[in-house]
Amino acid sequence: MRTFRLTCLACLTLVANVVAEESLAKIETDLVYGHKHGLAMTMDLYRPESAPNGAAILFMMSGGWVSKWAPPEQTKPLFAPYLGKGFTVFCVRHGSSPRYSIPEAIADVRRSVRYVRSRAEAFKVDPNRLGVMGMSAGGHLALMLGTTGDDGDGGAKDPIDRVSSRVAAVAALVPPTDLGVAVWDAPESLPAYRGFPALDLDLEKAGPNSPLTHVTPDDAPAIVIMGGKDELVPPRHGEWIAEAFKRENVQHKLLIFEDAGHGLEGDKNRRTMVDEVNGWFEKHLTEKE
Questions:
Q1: Domains within the chain, CATH numbers bracketed
Q2: In whole angstroms, what is the distance from residue 226 CA to residue 172 CA?
């Protein structure tokens, strides 16, 4: 469903355009956080021009589990609201469907967290104040990071794998939380999902790759924002994980914009989204007195 993926990424840009604030940024492009099959996995770094607060947001650039590249200068407006609050932003790209599967995308972004933490001093960020964010498939990946973080494998051959993948806060916009109703073999799978090759995943693999099945008390605090009229990822996905967070006493917030679809349409909704996400990250990533 290529058209939808483009629309999803475009709506992120619209979110940024609604916010009038313009923040300059120092950009470092194509930082390599790993390799596979002879290919480099990369991210871009955006530093706030002034008053960095020491915390960082890793943004999962993903729509339909396809991770597209764009010139950093074009992507910068998307991050302006967060740069303006002093957050350092990393734009993370993962191996894309259909060449790479959802489990492989999860492994990629998990490595990206380990990489940033391992170089936190050089990046001038606090390794204990890393947040993750994404929309749609990117939101799914952000929630997977928030619910499956680990302390690293001390015996791993690769030094990066010895580093923790835990994050301190999550912001997930219109995320699928249970792939058990989305993969092609699922009885509840919607016809629209045939447009997403990543969801051609064995039903038995849906649970292990769904954030809903991993919720435990040590998960990162998460804000989840859904569209009440979203027909692609219905708001029940947010309700399901909110119930799980509540059951496990995980700090969370669920917002449903009743008049919005998958793109969280509407200037008011987009402004509210930006304000809520910034507020969540300020609450959970800003150093306490």
A1: 2-284 (3.40.50.1820)
A2: 9
β 56-60/130-135 pair status: parallel
Beta bridge partners of 26: 47
Task: Supply the angle between the helices 267-285 and 2-18 in degrees, to the nearest 10.
Answer: 80
- Alpha helices, DSSP H only, in 97-193? 102-118, 120-123, 137-148
> One digit per residue, pLDDT tens: the chain, 289 residues?
333 443 445 555 545 444 434 445 799 999 999 999 999 999 999 999 889 999 999 999 999 999 999 999 889 999 999 999 999 999 999 999 999 999 999 999 999 999 999 999 999 999 999 999 999 999 999 999 999 999 999 999 999 999 999 999 999 999 999 999 999 999 999 999 999 999 999 999 999 999 999 999 999 999 999 999 999 999 999 999 999 999 999 999 999 999 999 999 999 999 999 999 999 999 999 965 3
